Structures are given as C-alpha cells and as structure tokens.
Amino acid sequence: MKIAVDAMGGDLAPQAIVEGVIQAASELPSEARIVLIGRESAILEIFNQNNFTPTNIDIVHAEDVIEMGEHPTKALSQKPNSSIGVGFRLLKEKEVDIFCSAGNTGAMHVGALFSIKAIEGILRPAIAGFVPQVGGGHAIMLDIGANADCKPEVLAQFGEIGSLFAQYTFQIESPRVALMNIGEEEQKGSLTSQATYPLLKGNKKINFIGNIEGKDLFNNKADVIVTDGFTGNILFKLGESLYEIARKRGIKDDFIDQTNYESIGGSAIIGVNGNVMIAHGISSPLAIKNMIGWAYKQVKSKAYLHIAQALN
C-alpha cells in the first residue's frame, strides 16, 4: 500500500508535514509505505534536522507549489509539476493508493474531478467530515464544504454514498442515516429539506431514521448526517472550536479532546474513483500523523469501489 502525502501543502509546510510523516512512519503497518511529494532538498533537510533515516518513505520530486490563495483550475493547468498535480497523476496511474494534502482545498477538489473523476452516476462528490460521538466512535457528516448549495436529489444521494462509506469504513452493518434539520418532524425545515426527506425515506437501500437537530450532532443518534456544504461546514467548524475554548479555560475532557481537528487530521472526498483526503491548512505534525493513520483505514475499506459497484 502506498500513501501519498503532499509535502508542500499547508500553512506550515513543508516543516510540519514532513515532521508528521516522520511520526507516522514508525507506526505504520509493514505493508504500507509513504510517498512524499515535493521539493526533495527541502524534505531531506527536515529529515536531517530530525536525525531521521527513512526506511518506508519514498520521495517524488515536484518543483512547483500551488499556494493557498491561487485559483484552483488555473493553478492546476499552469503548474502540472506542482506537488498536487504530481500527486493526482500518481493516483490516476494507480502508482499510489491514496493522496493526502493540507494544501489548497479547491485545487484538491478540482484535481480529483479532473484526474480520477467522479464515479459514474454521482451527481456531486462531497467532502465527508468525521464527527466524534459521546458514546465513542464517529459519525460522518456530508457535505462539509464542497457544495454550498444542494438540490434534494444531491442530498438524497449523499445519504446513500455516506451509508456505504460508513458501512465499510466503520464496519457497521446498517448505518443510521439522518437529515440535519431545524426540527424532528417530517414537514419541518427549508423547502430543500422538505423535498429531500421523502427521497431519503423512500430509499430502501438505506436505514433512514428521519430528521435530527443541531443538538444531536454528537449524541450518537446517527452514523451518517446529511446536510449541504454550507450548513455542514458551519457545524463542523463550530464543533472544532470546542477544543480551543476548553483548552483556554483549563478544561480537560476526553470527549472534547476528540473535537480537536488534530485527532482525525483529514476529511475524505467521497464519490470519486479513488481515495483522496484533505487536511486543514493549519495542520500540525500531529494532525498529519493522524491523517495518515486514517488514510490507511480508508484504503483498507475499499469504500469507493463499493460505492461504484452500488451505483452501476
């Protein structure tokens, strides 16, 4: 198994990224290798600073970097030898099994659509966030930012692909799928929510449990939480803020610790023909290390193949 990591993507790159890779390398199962993509001299310099000799890491040199503020489509076409461009080329050619980056999120999303492309039948790929649950484990919420506006058919499909992703990633036989709304009653919510509810309810392939509210986000009500990317992003970032507030107030709590963005480190793009994970731009070495651990699980789950199979 080859896990590709963009060494140059992120506000603290390449230092934090390479240090995170060094931490992950010692904990990875023997069947896995890390492929670091970026400026080789910069990567080797950080290895030397840490007195690190890689045994399960390969370096693929990429001279260019797509900066955080660049226009995704323009940057990808003008910088084919950027770390993101090279990463997607390797993924498309099946030289690597997953590509992870803390770089330009737009470029990662566009890069996935241009290279490995959306699975046939997918209306809109989504970014899925892992949401910690009070009783332990995680739910996935989709979308958390790729599609700010969603039609009912798109949200209904999120329920189906989210269910498959949860089933194979978390080994849950029949994941509970819920629609995020402003009330539990069927007729509640926006026009879009009201139109989405019957589509989810009528889909016999999923275990739809109805609407949930914001107060249920962490309460182990659902395994898959369906929402548009606008609402999902706000909820997800609100959840992540709990850790910083608690830390500043001197509160130590096992559950709140899990809301720290570093504890998972990345979010999956679901609905494309391959494995892609995107991380926070501010990712620390710990976040990168944890993202690589989840990347390993994602490859093992083969979730994207199960989604493709179910849709075609």
Automatic annotation (TrEMBL):
<comment type="pathway">
    <text>Lipid metabolism; phospholipid metabolism.</text>
</comment>
<protein>
    <recommendedName>
        <fullName>Phosphate acyltransferase</fullName>
        <ecNumber>2.3.1.274</ecNumber>
    </recommendedName>
</protein>
<keyword id="KW-0444">Lipid biosynthesis</keyword>
<keyword id="KW-0443">Lipid metabolism</keyword>
<dbReference type="GO" id="GO:0006633">
    <property type="term" value="P:fatty acid biosynthetic process"/>
</dbReference>
<keyword id="KW-0808">Transferase</keyword>
<dbReference type="GO" id="GO:0008654">
    <property type="term" value="P:phospholipid biosynthetic process"/>
</dbReference>
<dbReference type="InterPro" id="IPR012281">
    <property type="entry name" value="Phospholipid_synth_PlsX-like"/>
</dbReference>
<keyword id="KW-1208">Phospholipid metabolism</keyword>
<comment type="function">
    <text>Catalyzes the reversible formation of acyl-phosphate (acyl-PO(4)) from acyl-[acyl-carrier-protein] (acyl-ACP). This enzyme utilizes acyl-ACP as fatty acyl donor, but not acyl-CoA.</text>
</comment>
<dbReference type="GO" id="GO:0043811">
    <property type="term" value="F:phosphate:acyl-[acyl carrier protein] acyltransferase activity"/>
</dbReference>
<dbReference type="InterPro" id="IPR003664">
    <property type="entry name" value="FA_synthesis"/>
</dbReference>
<keyword id="KW-0963">Cytoplasm</keyword>
<keyword id="KW-0012">Acyltransferase</keyword>
<comment type="similarity">
    <text>Belongs to the PlsX family.</text>
</comment>
<dbReference type="Pfam" id="PF02504">
    <property type="entry name" value="FA_synthesis"/>
</dbReference>
<dbReference type="GO" id="GO:0005737">
    <property type="term" value="C:cytoplasm"/>
</dbReference>
<comment type="subunit">
    <text>Homodimer. Probably interacts with PlsY.</text>
</comment>
<keyword id="KW-0594">Phospholipid biosynthesis</keyword>
